[in-house]
């Protein structure tokens, strides 16, 4: 079962659905997955607070990303209310997730997608929210170009640089371009997002992101005179 789908269950009972690896693995010690749930909730709540105030639209966006199961609504709300008071401490949450999922960058990208969903909820992404997202991406280990690719999947396609969306250089040959497109399309397909356990409300986010990727690829093919 996927990371997002298990989130609210971790708030009401111990479990270890993700396995154990890296710095969080100690022989004979069971990982406390409730801490990972709190890390996800903390990042989302502090994202909403990044520009200084939390709007109703951001609260709604948070509830869409971190959808609770029946019985977990109260625990989720209490965790959100505590974390949203300040952005202080978000680095610790991000580092914990980065350690746990360092071998699964697609999951970390899902987390960033969820944070962008919250940031965009009030119709724009402010400079303070941009700084927050950039710092989280840095902690997750994404390169500057990877972060720009993820960001542009949410804020739109730059007409002068469709290569950035695919994550390649303009001098790439046609065969490598095709392989790069297939790779990024595979990892960002909406069905893959849902398979990783993301809530169904995030499917539109994934569809929009996939549309941006496809538009970039079509633009490159057009520039190259390819069908």
Structure summary:
This protein is mainly α. It has twelve helices and no strands. It has two domains: 1-142, no CATH class; 157-227, Helix Hairpins.
The profile of the biggest β sheet is: none
Structural class by SSE content: mainly alpha
The share of residues in helices is 55-70%
Total count of domains: 2
Average pLDDT level: 77
Order of helices and strands: HHHHHHHHHHHH
Low-confidence stretches are 10-32
Structural features, described:
- The protein is mainly alpha-helical and 227 residues long.
- The protein folds into two domains: 1-142, no CATH class; 157-227, Orthogonal Bundle (Helix Hairpins), CATH 1.10.287.
- The protein has helices at residues 7-12, 33-49, 56-65, 73-83, 90-100, 105-119, 127-140, 144-155, 162-166, 174-188, 190-195, 203-223.
- The radius of gyration is 18 Å and the shape is elongated.
Q: How are the SSEs placed, and which strands pair?
A:
Elements: H1 7-12, H2 33-49, H3 56-65, H4 73-83, H5 90-100, H6 105-119, H7 127-140, H8 144-155, H9 162-166, H10 174-188, H11 190-195, H12 203-223
Helix pairs in contact: 2-4, 2-5, 2-6, 3-6, 5-7, 6-7, 10-12
Features:
single chain; mainly alpha; 227 residues; Helix Hairpins
């Amino acid at each position: 079962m996927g990371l997002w789908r298990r989130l609210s269950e971790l708030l009401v009972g111990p479990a270890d659905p993700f396995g154990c690896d890296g710095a969080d693995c100690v022989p004979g010690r069971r990982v406390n997955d409730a801490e990972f749930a709190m890390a996800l909730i903390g990042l989302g709540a502090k994202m909403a607070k990044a520009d200084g105030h939390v709007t109703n639209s951001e609260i709604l966006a948070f509830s869409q990303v971190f959808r609770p199961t029946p019985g977990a609504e109260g625990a989720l709300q209490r965790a959100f209310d505590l974390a949203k008071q300040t952005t202080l401490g978000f680095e610790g949450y991000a580092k914990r997730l980065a350690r746990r999922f360092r071998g699964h960058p697609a999951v970390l990208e899902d987390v960033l997608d969820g944070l962008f969903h919250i940031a965009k909820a009030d119709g724009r992404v402010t400079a303070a929210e941009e700084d927050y997202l950039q710092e989280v991406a840095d902690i997750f280990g994404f390169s500057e170009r990877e972060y720009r690719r993820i960001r542009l999947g949410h804020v739109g396609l730059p007409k002068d640089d469709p290569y950035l969306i695919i994550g390649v250089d303009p001098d790439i040959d046609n065969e490598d371009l095709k392989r790069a497109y297939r790779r990024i399309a595979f990892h960002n397909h909406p069905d893959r997002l849902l398979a990783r356990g993301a809530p169904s409300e995030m499917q539109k986010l994934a569809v929009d992101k996939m549309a941006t990727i496809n538009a970039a690829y079509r633009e490159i093919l057009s520039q190259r005179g390819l069908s």
